């Protein structure tokens, strides 16, 4: 067994003040614990102005001072007793707060920590060292204490039982007095209890032999992790039973996001988000795409319209990129063939909805096409079916954690993704009694209605709607060959909400200029973009999707702010 007292030679023993709080006006010497004496009371019979106090007032003041003196003496005695207790504890080196010098990368000890999620039955009777946060503490009398340690969403029950030469009462008191969310190192022996453990993910216990405080959390936190992890189902069920549980609202969560991120659901959400990004990258690499990085400071609007952040760039007007659209097309003109990018996207929309952000992470792709823009839709089809399969297979624990707080049904999708034309979608809506402009866009309510109709008819919540009206698409979208009122474009939907926009792009510079001017875009601001097509450009197309929106809809969450680590919307730019 490792000797942990050698790890932290400068660690602090448990602080006396935490055992014996002193009354106001007293002090204690670290050397001999002698208390400061009360003020001289010989002049207490006179006030500041020299007026003599009445006998009654003087007597009252004398009693007060005597009481204060007794309190000080009691505090001194208690401190001395506590100090003697610590000094007398032969196991005092096995617990306490680690001093700062031992946390300043002073030395490499060779110690090996085991992740909490890996502490299981296979380690029975073995000594392990773990580090994590104190999730709960529970003393049982003076001789037994329980801790639940948490790391990366996994939890482990740790037990302290007073035993000769192993665990002292003082050690139990120290451990169970630790504040929630504090970081600790614990060494102990793994044991397997007879009964299942309900309050932890790991079905083993750690019999604590040493425990050291690494980082203290405030005794009272702005939000309680248990409250933040509670589901609406549990809150409503409690209300029906006459009990009112704490509900942590969204703004409070975002104000204290560092704490909110510690809930099991959020741990699952952002690990799934990481996997979505990784699958996107790995799949496209396997399809011959090249990863690129385009500038986010540009001279003109990349999408057109007013939803652009404008700024001064060394005395010249500039914008934050609404997408990597222009530069990923220029990369195609530079003969990279197939490209993708994962990066920030900025939209200055005053959209106070559940699915819009002013900054999000874009997953973009662009590729040469040989004959038809359906080649782009083919990539989208294979990519997202592979993504959904991988998430369902490899992220079961994360999806389960999310489902406990935010219950949802698994996404329904087909092996070969359904494709409908815009006209077919309009016809389905018309037959259901919903009238829409055949050359206009679909609003959110209509998109949801169409999603329900598609699910009922085709049994899928993931589908592609293509050949949109040209009037509702960006200036770089290629018109349809047979009807210029329509375009070679598509949107992709999950659970009735749009997540992807894509299209064949205009690669003819004259048509591109005409389209841009028609939408009020200053041609000088995109001159280098248009010039790229004057040097010879292959037919090409691509798509873009918001990472946060994919995760939100795959997990059927009700707000995109749940899937943005530190969301930026029209009203929030901190933390």
From TrEMBL:
It comes from the Eukaryota. The keyword 4Fe-4S does not apply. Keywords: Aminoacyl-tRNA synthetase, ATP-binding, Cytoplasm, Ligase, Nucleotide-binding, Protein biosynthesis. CDD domains: AspRS_cyto_N, AsxRS_core. Gene3D superfamilies: Bira Bifunctional Protein, Domain 2, Nucleic acid-binding proteins. The keyword Transit peptide does not apply. It catalyses: tRNA(Asp) + L-aspartate + ATP = L-aspartyl-tRNA(Asp) + AMP + diphosphate. Residues 34-44 have a biased composition (Polar residues). It is found in: Cytoplasm. GO terms for cellular component: aminoacyl-tRNA synthetase multienzyme complex; cytosol. Residues 270-567 form the Aminoacyl-transfer RNA synthetases class-II family profile domain. GO terms for biological process: aspartyl-tRNA aminoacylation. GO terms for molecular function: aspartate-tRNA ligase activity; ATP binding; RNA binding. PROSITE patterns: AA_TRNA_LIGASE_II. Its EC number is 6.1.1.12. Residues 34-53 are annotated as: Disordered. Belongs to the class-II aminoacyl-tRNA synthetase family. Type 2 subfamily. This is aspartate--tRNA ligase. It comes from Papaver atlanticum.
């Amino acid at each position: 067994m490792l000797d942990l007292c050698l790890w932290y030679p400068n660690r602090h023993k448990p602080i006396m003040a935490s055992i014996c709080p002193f009354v106001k006006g007293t002090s204690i010497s670290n050397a001999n614990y002698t208390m400061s004496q009360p003020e001289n009371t010989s002049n207490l019979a006179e006030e500041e102005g020299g007026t003599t106090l009445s006998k009654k007032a003087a007597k009252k003041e004398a009693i007060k001072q005597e009481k204060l003196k007794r309190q000080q003496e009691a505090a001194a005695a208690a401190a001395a007793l506590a100090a003697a207790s610590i000094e007398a504890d032969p196991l005092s080196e096995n617990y306490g707060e680690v001093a700062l010098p031992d946390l300043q990368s002073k030395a490499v000890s060779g110690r090996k920590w085991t992740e909490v999620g890996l502490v299981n039955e296979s380690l029975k009777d073995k000594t392990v060292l773990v580090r994590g946060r104190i999730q709960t503490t529970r003393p049982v009398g003076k001789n037994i204490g329980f801790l639940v340690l948490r790391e990366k969403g996994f939890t482990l029950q740790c037990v302290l039982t007073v035993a000769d030469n192993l665990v002292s009462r003082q050690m139990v008191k120290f451990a169970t007095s630790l504040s929630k969310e504090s970081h600790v190192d614990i060494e102990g022996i793994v044991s397997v209890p007879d009964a299942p453990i309900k309050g932890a993910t790991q079905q083993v216990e750690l019999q604590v032999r040493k425990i050291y405080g690494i980082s203290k959390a405030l005794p009272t936190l702005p939000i309680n992790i248990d409250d933040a992890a509670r589901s609406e189902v549990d809150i409503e069920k409690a209300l029906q039973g006459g009990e009112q549980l704490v509900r942590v609202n969204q703004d409070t969560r975002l104000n204290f996001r560092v704490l909110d991120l510690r809930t099991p659901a959020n741990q699952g959400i952002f690990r799934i988000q990481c996997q979505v990004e990784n699958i996107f990258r790995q799949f496209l690499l396997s399809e011959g795409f090249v990863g690129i990085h385009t500038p986010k400071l540009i001279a003109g609007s990349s999408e057109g319209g007013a939803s652009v952040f404008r700024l001064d760039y060394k005395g010249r007007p500039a914008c934050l990129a609404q997408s990597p659209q222009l530069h990923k097309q220029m990369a195609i003109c530079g003969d990279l063939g197939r490209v993708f990018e994962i990066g920030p996207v900025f939209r200055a929309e005053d959209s106070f909805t559940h699915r819009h952000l002013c900054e999000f992470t874009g997953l973009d792709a662009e590729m040469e096409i040989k004959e038809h823009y359906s080649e782009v839709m083919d990539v989208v089809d294979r990519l997202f079916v592979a993504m959904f399969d991988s998430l369902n297979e490899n992220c079961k624990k994360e999806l389960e954690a999310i489902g406990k707080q935010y219950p949802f049904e698994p996404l329904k999708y087909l092996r070969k993704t359904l494709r409908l034309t815009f006209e077919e979608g309009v016809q389905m809506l018309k037959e259901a009694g919903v009238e829409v402009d055949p050359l206009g866009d679909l609003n959110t309510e209509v998109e949801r209605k169409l999603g329900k109709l598609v699910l009922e008819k085709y049994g899928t919540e993931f589908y592609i709607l293509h050949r949109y009206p040209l009037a509702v698409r960006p200036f770089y979208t290629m018109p349809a060959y047979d009807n210029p009122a329509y375009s070679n474009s598509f949107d992709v939907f999950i659970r009735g909400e749009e997540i992807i926009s894509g299209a064949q792009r205009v690669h003819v510079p004259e048509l591109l200029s005409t389209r841009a001017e028609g939408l009020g875009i200053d041609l000088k601001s995109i001159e280098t973009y248009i010039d790229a097509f004057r040097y010879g450009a292959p037919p090409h197309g691509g798509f873009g999707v918001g990472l946060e929106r994919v995760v939100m809809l795959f997990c059927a969450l009700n707000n995109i702010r749940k899937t943005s680590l530190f969301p930026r919307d029209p009203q929030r730019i901190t933390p």
